Amino acid sequence: MVLAALVIHAARILDGRGHEVRNAALVVDESKIVRIDPHPAHVDIDLGDRTLMPGGIDTHVHIGWHFDKNGRSNDDGTGESPDAYAMFAAENAYKTLLGGVTTVQSLGAPIDKTIRDFSGRLPLPRVLTAVEPITDSKLTPDQMREAVRKRAAEGADVIKIFASQSIRNGGAPTMSQEQMDAACGEAKKLGLRTAVHAHGPESVKRSVLAGCTSIEHGALLDQATLDLMAEHATFFDPNIDLVFRNYFENKSHFLGIGNYTEEGFAQMQKAVPKALNVFQMGLKTKGLKMVFGTDAVAGSHGRNFEELVYRVQKGGQDPMQAIISATSLAAESLGLGASIGSIAPGYEADLIAVDGDPLKDITALERVVFVMKGGRVIKRP
User: Fold this and answer.
1) Count of structural domains within the chain
2) Do 94 and 184 fall into the same domain?
3) Is the pLDDT at 2 greater than 70, yes or no?
4) What span, in angstroms and rounded, lies between the C-alpha atoms of 167 and 198?
């Protein structure tokens, strides 16, 4: 049920833009934020000594990827009924919402559209989808443009392009400059963003010069390429922890499928310190816009904030900057910076509260006790 004129009090309010207000209340009218009230006349929900903040925004998930009835990784519903596949995807989305993430960008599979279409009716996060990635490196520039138009016609919110191999195969470039120019140029003409899977300097350079919106992964980057991304205002989504750790923890569920071989797992192990190093270089790169994304696959849905904990504890990121990367900056990267990701008048009431103060103890983000999506209370203490 959507509640009108709801007043929510908390010991701390973080606005997602780097500001903190202590001992205040937030006024929500239906689905929108009205204002922060430092002296409310009454309180409808008292969160006590907790921190209220915008819901998290994960810019890279695969919401339909799950472990099937046999315990095996299943990313496309193979061997299952459409109903079963949809239920697995909905379960993943619900776990993600309860974990404090109110918006996700799923990159992507057609099932994402189903979850997106029901996200306003069911307790699910807001979903943006690429529908289906562009992976074929044999496409001509004209065929790349046609592939972009096809996905746009299918209802994609963003175009996902594989410009390099998987890290399990070494991460080498797979798309030429001409191909990237064609794909990103066509997407821009259609008013669509582009999210590019790219690990090394050459594939990232081609993507940046083509005008693509964001780089996903980038585990093998150097300083010159990070500087180039900053110069072109290209968003960087470095997935440095949860995706790897989840694979290692659930190795038996993946091993033997595609490039999930012993050698593939060895390549991922080698990539972990490299990805961490790139992230730490990124923190020192002036003007680089690093956003929050996890590449959540089967086994990691709902655990999204573990990535932020790692970025702060192991990567050395400032806690407030980490939170900004998962709220207002992430919203900006999705083209939604004027409607979500911040606590400000007129913004969507996508809110969470965590037990404790994440500015002092970032693990508080793993203790989500309150979730509101579009003014609707989903979880409360």
Assistant:
1) 2
2) yes
3) no
4) 9
Q: How many CB atoms are located within 10 Å of the residue 153 CB?
A: 10
223-231 vs 201-209: helix axis angle to the nearest 10? 10
Same domain, 15 and 139: no
Q: What is the pLDDT of residues 9-63, one digit of tens each?
A: 999 999 999 999 999 999 999 999 999 999 999 999 999 999 999 999 999 999 9
Residue 47 lies inside a defined structural domain of this protein: yes
81: its two tokens:
């009924």
Residues 141 and 175 in one domain: yes
Asked, for residue 261, whether it belongs to a domain, the answer is: yes
**Could you tell me which of 243, 146, 245, 133 has the C-alpha nearest to residue 194?**
133
Residue 102 token pair = 């109110």
Co-location of 121 and 198 in the same domain:
yes
pLDDT of residue 345: 98
- Domain of residue 262: give its range: 56-304
The answer, as to whether pTM is greater than 0.85, is: yes
Q: Which amino acid does the sequence have at 73?
A: S
- State the CATH number of the domain containing residue 128: 3.20.20.140
Say whether both 69 and 132 belong to one domain.
yes
Q: Where are the beta strands (DSSP E) in 62-213?
A: 66-67, 73-74, 101-106, 126-129, 158-162, 193-198
E-state strands within the chain: 6-14, 20-29, 32-37, 45-46, 50-54, 56-61, 66-67, 73-74, 101-106, 126-129, 158-162, 193-198, 214-217, 235-237, 289-290, 351-355, 368-373, 376-379
The whole-angstrom separation of Cα 160 and Cα 174 is 14
CA 175-180-183 angle, 5° bins: 120
In a domain, 49, yes or no: yes
Find the helix packing angle between 242-249 and 306-313, rounded to 10°: 110
Boundary residue ending a domain (304, 328, 355)? 304
In a domain, 350, yes or no: yes
Tokens of 11: 């010991």
- Token digits for 178? 């001409």
Local structure of 128: helix, strand or coil? strand
Average pLDDT over residues 71-82: 96
| C-alpha distance from residue 304 to each of 166, 293, 327, 366 (Å) | 21, 8, 13, 9
Q: Say which residue, 180 or 2, is predicted with more confidence.
A: 180
The verdict on 49 and 60 lying in the same domain is no
Same domain, 33 and 91: no
pLDDT of residue 1: 45
